């Protein structure tokens, strides 16, 4: 299924790396292993990859920092910031999972993992990327500001007040990214905590599409290109 796909495994545990490499080769992929963030970044800059497996705990390195660095790369830069990333983590708490998704993880898998589940996850990532690429070529998002209604891909989406205000702010600011503080102000959350914003963004991605809102490292969030470039955005005044 993954014939010729280039996959980067960022894992400092040799046993786990061998297991992942064997699974990917079984699926037909070409697997490259790097055991720290610095070497992984060099590999990402040297060639394009179709998928990255990223362990968060890399000894002295920080996998989450590498993830943020990848997602902050310019759209025309190398490596490609849209490269799918599956995070391997032992962190089970909700805050950590939400933070990983907001940092740009496409999927995450908990240790210890089952290879059958991992294979299914990999197939799902490639199916989704193949089917969607970006967010599509037809009108994706329709917002009626006065009526406070949202339609995405032809279906009505029920949003909370805070979610609608955040989405409206992102639409009106497109293509610029909006700082987290600005979105918190739009959401009028009290107390205004970054974790509250992360939860709102996570819920919006669940209700719309996981690629609908991009995380811009060190800045904030922006609406993805695929749904707002003419003629993909309709905003009722």
From TrEMBL:
<dbReference type="GO" id="GO:0032993">
    <property type="term" value="C:protein-DNA complex"/>
</dbReference>
<feature type="DNA-binding region" description="OmpR/PhoB-type">
    <location>
        <begin position="130"/>
        <end position="225"/>
    </location>
</feature>
<keyword id="KW-0805">Transcription regulation</keyword>
<dbReference type="GO" id="GO:0006355">
    <property type="term" value="P:regulation of DNA-templated transcription"/>
</dbReference>
<dbReference type="InterPro" id="IPR001867">
    <property type="entry name" value="OmpR/PhoB-type_DNA-bd"/>
</dbReference>
<dbReference type="InterPro" id="IPR011006">
    <property type="entry name" value="CheY-like_superfamily"/>
</dbReference>
<keyword id="KW-0902">Two-component regulatory system</keyword>
<feature type="domain" description="Response regulatory">
    <location>
        <begin position="6"/>
        <end position="126"/>
    </location>
</feature>
<keyword id="KW-0804">Transcription</keyword>
<dbReference type="GO" id="GO:0000976">
    <property type="term" value="F:transcription cis-regulatory region binding"/>
</dbReference>
<dbReference type="GO" id="GO:0005829">
    <property type="term" value="C:cytosol"/>
</dbReference>
<dbReference type="InterPro" id="IPR016032">
    <property type="entry name" value="Sig_transdc_resp-reg_C-effctor"/>
</dbReference>
<dbReference type="InterPro" id="IPR001789">
    <property type="entry name" value="Sig_transdc_resp-reg_receiver"/>
</dbReference>
<dbReference type="GO" id="GO:0000156">
    <property type="term" value="F:phosphorelay response regulator activity"/>
</dbReference>
<keyword id="KW-0238">DNA-binding</keyword>
<feature type="modified residue" description="4-aspartylphosphate">
    <location>
        <position position="55"/>
    </location>
</feature>
<dbReference type="InterPro" id="IPR036388">
    <property type="entry name" value="WH-like_DNA-bd_sf"/>
</dbReference>
<dbReference type="Pfam" id="PF00486">
    <property type="entry name" value="Trans_reg_C"/>
</dbReference>
<dbReference type="InterPro" id="IPR039420">
    <property type="entry name" value="WalR-like"/>
</dbReference>
<protein>
    <submittedName>
        <fullName>Response regulator transcription factor</fullName>
    </submittedName>
</protein>
<keyword id="KW-0597">Phosphoprotein</keyword>
<dbReference type="Pfam" id="PF00072">
    <property type="entry name" value="Response_reg"/>
</dbReference>
<feature type="domain" description="OmpR/PhoB-type">
    <location>
        <begin position="130"/>
        <end position="225"/>
    </location>
</feature>
